Amino acid sequence: MIDCTDARGHTLRLETPPRRIVSLVPSQTELLAELGLDAAVVGVTRFCVHPAAWKSRKTIVGGTKQVRIDRVRALQPDLVLANREENTRADVEAIETFAPVFVTDVCDLPGALAMIRTVGRLTGRAERAERLAGRIASAFAALPPFPPCRAVYLIWRNPYMTVGGDTFIHDMMARAGFVNVFAGHTRYPVVTEAEMAAAAPDVILLSSEPYPFREKHRDALRAVLPDLPLHLVDGEFFSWYGSRLRHAPAYFTRLRRAMAAPASAPQRPA
Hints:
The chain has eleven helices and eleven strands. By secondary structure, it is an alpha/beta fold. It has two domains: 2-139, Nitrogenase molybdenum iron protein domain (Rossmann fold, 3-Layer(aba) Sandwich); 145-260, 3-Layer(aba) Sandwich (Rossmann fold). Strands 5-4-3-6-7 form a five-stranded parallel sheet. It has a four-stranded parallel sheet with strand order 9-8-10-11, sandwiched between helices. It has a two-stranded antiparallel ribbon with strand order 1-2. Helix 5 (109-122) runs antiparallel to helix 6. The longest helix has 16 residues, at 126-141.
């Protein structure tokens, strides 16, 4: 018997490890692949881009917030992974009428490590998940001390949106040495160009997701805020809380080094 409690306080009991899994969470889809569950995963969302080959071999059940309930039902899953922030309550409740749903809620690194271990227990991969969580924890523990850098992290434009102090991105920023100047806000507040300037950050970070900021967007913002450095960053390392976390510390180190390099150097770390 597998017995786990999800973020809602709902206890999920499975007689055996699931053999037909649908994942509605991109970072957890990648985690399932890392745990060796290719044969068990039957459905993913169109935003589940890692591993790349899965999108052509698994059933696409819609988006994270526009789930095709009929497609999920047709797959006859014995486990559906969802997330409180990424999926809607209505979709979760609809799916729960015909399949077990486990809902996660990850706000920081300890929460991510706990989620990885729990998903490992749910899927019969507890030892593998424990080893992965240990490697991630060790990689973050080995991060060098970075000089504090006051930052605005943008996730959207028209309107511009940033991150508050209760988000997973905020926690990753802190571990990379960034001081979130909008930490006093919650969730994902809208901010104006004037508010960004008034916050006096050392840098503005433009994420690759969910809005795909590119050089043209950086150039447009630079025209309005010419005195503030702007860097394009890979949003997956700041916001994906599954197995991709293994590589986040190395990325943060490269990013901080790139930011300390002369202005003529490339602004997006490899």
